[in-house]
Amino acid sequence: MSLVIDCHGHYTTAPKALEQWRNKQIAGINQPSEMPKVSDLKISDDELRESIELNQLKFMQERGADITLFSPRASFMAHHIGDYNISATWASICNELCYRVSQLFPNHFIPVAMLPQSPGVPTKTCLAEIDRCVNEYGNVGINLNPDPSGGHWTSPPLTDPYWFPIYEKMVEYNVPAMIHVSTSCHHCFHTTGAHYLNADTTSFMQCLQGDLFKIFPTLRFIVPHGGGAAPYHWGRFRGLAMMMKKPTLEEHLLNNIYFDTCVYHQPGIDLLVDVIPYKNILFASEMIGAVRDIDPNTGFYFDDTKRYIEASTLTKEQKYHIYEGNARRVFPRLDQQLKAKGL
Ligand SMILES: [Zn+2]
């Protein structure tokens, strides 16, 4: 029996006090006298427990997932709001809550950090939070927003030296990054229906165009939501790589890029596992996230992605790698923590 490790979970069910504090913080940007203190936010352990037990943990147990890599709510990162200090305070609060959840449920949740990114601000400003989250909170990965402007794409591509301080830190700690945007503030792009999938596809293409992994051969990115359009258009991307005189995609990208299984129907998963080598696929559901309903065609939740993996043509061995083996390899600090627990 494999462990089932869901590498993509967010704290979408945090107690309302968190959102209320954030709204005050946003109001305080223009009205400094209204700016709340960090100490104004009070959430008890019981409230945290309840918010998890009735939601993520319940679904994990019903669906047969053991461990979730748990990061702050992605759409609430909203790096475009305010300046660096606003983002830094917000990231620190959100990361601390995920850490507390991981302490309350040590067998089920392992934290992944959001970064205090802000558009146009040097990325070295994120390093102290990475240090804190890895060293003090036991975070095993980070979420990196390739577009902190929220849909306006004002930052350089991921292959640009702008991002290198974060990559150097990732290499030092041997932690991967999930490439994950936040809410869209561009009226043309729906947050989870367009902006997320655009960003997945865009990030993949940026890596294809560049030679980032020659500079950082051990850097690892997870492109979520099944890789956006990448697997579906694999032929196009292979052809583009040839035209750009790049090596094959396997050689150029697949030692460093992984896709998750947040694809909410069987034909999508079937295509993913057919096109992408199983060594590059990590189990994930992003549950209680973008799509929260039951699929009337199947009678099961759209985000119950384990069912699709089970129903696919993957062998038992391949499923082991998707559920557990690949996650241990891509998140070595997760592997260490699991081994320390005897898992
Ligand atoms: Zn997500």
TrEMBL record:
This is 4-oxalomesaconate hydratase. The keyword Protease does not apply. The keyword Transport does not apply. One of its GO terms (cellular component) is cytoplasm. It comes from the Bacteria. Pfam families: Amidohydro_2 (PF04909). InterPro entries: ACMSD, Amidohydro-rel, Metal_Hydrolase. GO terms for molecular function: carboxy-lyase activity; hydrolase activity. Gene3D superfamilies: Metal-dependent hydrolases (3.20.20.140). Keywords: Lyase. Residues 5-332 form the Amidohydrolase-related domain. PANTHER family: 2-AMINO-3-CARBOXYLMUCONATE-6-SEMIALDEHYDE DECARBOXYLASE, ISO-OROTATE DECARBOXYLASE (EUROFUNG). GO terms for biological process: secondary metabolic process.
